[in-house]
């Protein structure tokens, strides 16, 4: 409860008292002034309630925005960490595949070196076959 609500309630009560006193004494002026005070008190109390609700909405909005920013930072941090994990995984797999290709290439080179005649025959056959295929398409 804020100051306007309290003052408005007190003003409303004072106005009721003046209106009642004017009615008892039979005087119109205190009755009219009392009715004015009642209306002013009700309006001031309503303003106080509205202001209080606006402050609550502002605070709710501020908390909502703060939580949204916090969640955004959390999601960003998760995405960065996931990206780092994927990067490490890709590098690890790339290294593994590179090492495997090097190992197999070396093994193939050793095998070709050990079997020079068979390697030369295979290369010649492949070259002949490729040449034959290219010349047939013309």
TrEMBL record:
It comes from the Bacteria. The keyword Disulfide bond does not apply. This is CsbD family protein. Residues 4-55 form the CsbD-like domain. It holds the Pfam family CsbD. The chain crosses the membrane at residues 117-135. It comes from Methylorubrum zatmanii. Keywords: Membrane, Transmembrane, Transmembrane helix. The keyword Zinc does not apply. Belongs to the UPF0337 (CsbD) family.
């Amino acid at each position: 409860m804020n100051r306007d609500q309290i003052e408005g309630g007190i003003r409303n009560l004072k106005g009721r008292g003046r209106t009642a006193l004017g009615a008892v004494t039979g005087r119109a002026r205190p009755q009219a002034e009392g009715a004015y005070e009642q209306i002013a008190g009700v309006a001031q109390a309503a303003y106080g309630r509205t202001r209080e609700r606006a402050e609550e909405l502002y605070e709710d909005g501020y908390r909502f925005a703060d939580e949204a920013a916090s969640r955004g930072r959390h999601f960003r941090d998760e995405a960065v960490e996931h990206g780092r994990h994927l990067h490490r995984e890709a590098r690890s797999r790339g290294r593994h595949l590179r090492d495997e290709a090097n190992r197999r290439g070396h093994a193939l080179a050793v095998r070709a070196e050990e079997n020079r005649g068979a390697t030369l025959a295979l290369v010649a056959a492949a070259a002949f076959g490729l040449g034959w295929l290219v010349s047939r398409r013309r």
